[in-house]
Amino acid sequence: MNSPLMQVAVGLGCDRGTPLATLQQALDEALALADARLGDVAAAASIDLKADEPGLLALAAQHGWTLTFYTPEQLAAVPVPNPSETVRKYTGSPSVSEAAALLSAAWVAGQALPVTALLVEKHKYRGADGRNATVSLARCHGFPP
Considering the entire predicted model, what is its pTM? Predict the structure, then answer.
């Protein structure tokens, strides 16, 4: 599936205080599941509640990404395959990583994208530190206009 033209958008969610190493491992695993590379990442996003999260900011800085942060209302408006009432309870949206990946991919593609754009749905990783990270990947290309 990997090609020189592959572009993916990364949606990121995590516990408060999740370290960079845990986020990086979750990202590496999700990219491997999609047969994608770091160089394929065209966009990255999360929820605005995480705009000050040191691990997310460090991950973005390490890879030269500008993170986009969406409001809970923006994320909640995106249909996703794995909504969570627990996530809704804490964030106001039933999805962070899947919805953020789809919104970011749509921005890159210049059009709204279907749920089928998700290459990796809600990949969960619990680090040795006990912190949880969730990564979703959506493809940004290959859709009819």
Answer: 0.92
Is there a contact between 138 and 101 (Cβ–Cβ < 8 Å)? yes
User: What are 58-97's pLDDT values in tens digits?
Assistant: 999 999 999 999 999 999 999 999 999 999 999 999 999 9
Q: How far is CA 94 from CA 17, 47, 68, 75, 81, in A?
A: 21, 11, 18, 8, 10
Tokens of 45: 């996003």
- Hey, what are 106's tokens? 């749509």
Q: Which residues contact 141 (CB under 8 A, 6 or more apart)?
A: 5, 6, 7, 108, 109
**The two three-digit tokens of residue 10, written as one number:** 């990364």
- The CA distance from 73 to 140, in Å, is 22
